[in-house]
Specification:
Order of helices and strands: HHHHH
Radius of gyration: 17 Å
Mean pLDDT: 90
Structural class: mainly alpha
Number of helices: 5
Low-confidence stretches: none
Number of strands: 0
Strand content: under 5%
Largest sheet: none
C-alpha cells in the first residue's frame, strides 16, 4: 500500500509541474502554433530521468522507495515520454539496436493509431 501512496503523491507532484511548465511556456511564447510546452516537458523529463539514472547507477544512495516516488511517480506524472525514451536508450545502450528501433516505431505508430481509432470512436458515439 505504501508503494501506491508513493506513486500517487509523486504523480500528483509531477502532474502539477507538467501543467505549470506547459502553461508557462504557452504564456511566454504567446500562444504558439506548435506544442512547445509539451516539447519542453518531454525534453526536460528525458534530461532529468537520464541524469538521475546516471546518478543512481553510480551511487547506491537512492532507495527503492525514492526511485519509486521519483521515477514512477514524479517523472511518470510529469511525462511518460521520459520512461519511453529511457527504455529505448537502455535497449540501444545494451546493444539491442533492433529492439530499440522496434520499440520506438511501435510506440509512435501504435500510439498515433490508437489516438486516431479513439477519436473516430468518440466522434461516432457523439453523433
Amino acid at each position: 500500500m505504501s508503494s501506491i501512496i508513493l506513486v500517487g503523491v509523486g504523480s500528483f507532484v509531477g502532474g502539477i509541474l507538467r501543467y505549470g511548465l506547459n502553461t508557462w511556456v504557452h504564456r511566454v511564447l504567446g500562444s504558439p502554433w506548435f506544442p512547445f510546452g509539451t516539447l519542453a516537458v518531454n525534453v526536460i523529463g528525458c534530461l532529468v530521468i537520464g541524469f538521475l539514472t546516471g546518478l543512481a547507477e553510480s551511487w547506491t544512495a537512492l532507495s527503492s522507495e525514492t526511485r519509486l516516488f521519483v521515477f514512477v511517480g514524479v517523472l511518470g506524472g510529469f511525462t511518460t515520454f521520459s520512461a519511453f525514451a529511457l527504455e529505448s536508450y537502455a535497449l540501444a545502450r545494451d546493444t539491442h539496436h533492433g529492439a530499440a528501433l522496434v520499440n520506438i516505431g511501435l510506440q509512435v505508430m501504435l500510439g498515433l493509431l490508437a489516438v486516431w481509432i479513439g477519436h473516430l470512436a468518440g466522434r461516432s458515439l457523439a453523433d
